[in-house]
Amino acid sequence: MSRLQNKTALITGGTSGIGLETARQFIAEGARVAITGSSANSVAAARAELGDKAIVIQADAGNVAGQQVVAEAIKNAFGHLDILFVNAGVAEFGPVEQWSEAAFDKSIAINVKGPFFLIQALLPIFSKQAAIVLNTSINAHIGMPNSSVYSLTKGALLTLAKTLSGELIGRGIRVNAVSPGPIATPLYSKLGASEADSKAMADHIQSQIPVGRFGDAAEVAKTVIFLASDEAAYIVGSELVIDGGMSNL
Q1: Residues 32-58 as b or e (16 or more Cβ within 10 Å = b)
Q2: Cα angle 13-186-225, degrees, rounded to a multiple of 5
Q3: Taking Cα atoms as reference points, which of 81, 27, 25 lies closest to residue 54?
Q4: What is the pTM of this model?
């Protein structure tokens, strides 16, 4: 396939999970790809896997000044940008009474503030037929206990997809969103729970998914490819939910 032939693309949080799989598929579709990652280890691993097929940039997704640095790196590497997939994010859960201001601010910075200022920094180099895809979540739609902060950040990102779609379409930039449900990625292993608790949580979540399984990162990546490609030229300000029917219950 070559749906992204000669396109330039940036994927934030592209060193693992959905981001890395999307990078693989973007490359297979003919795109020139850059990805960001926050940790030195994940950046090194992604460089080892992708080699010269992708530019790998270490960046803190929640650092505003760092977004300008990323934009400069993309300008120097590509000259212009056709596709941005905002995928970097943090998922932290807990009851309302246990949240600290510092933890709250961290989630806001990584999931909302950083993406906003990255888009701002990239505006001068977006092509006239560019596509932005924001990775939100079904948590923006469902009242899952202990997900208050995560859900509000994803709700904010979903709203951003809708408002920016109206603001930027005059520049030739389409903005859309994908909202995955439970996806089998390393995310769940990073929540700090014991193996037994993690399995119990996974079993409970899976029981709420009509198709009876977690989604695969490749299924999200294929949806992002569609929204980023010229096939979706008439899709603006939309959200594609990828959750196995979970949010319809």
Answers
A1: bbbbbbbeeebbebbbeebeeebbbbb
A2: 50
A3: 27
A4: 0.93
Helix axes 17-28, 217-228, angle to 10 degrees: 50
* Cα–Cα nearest to 95, from 149, 142, 48, 44: 149
Query: Six-digit token pair at 35?
Result: 């990805």
Residue 249: strand, helix, or coil: coil
Q: Per-residue pLDDT tens for 108-118?
A: 999 999 999 99
Q: What is the pLDDT of residues 23-75, one digit of tens each?
A: 999 999 999 999 999 999 999 999 999 999 999 999 999 999 999 999 999 99
Q: Report the range of poorest mean pLDDT among 7-11, 28-32, 187-191.
A: 187-191
Structural domains of the chain, ranges and CATH numbers in brackets: 8-182+220-241 (3.40.50.720)
- The set of catalytic residues is 150
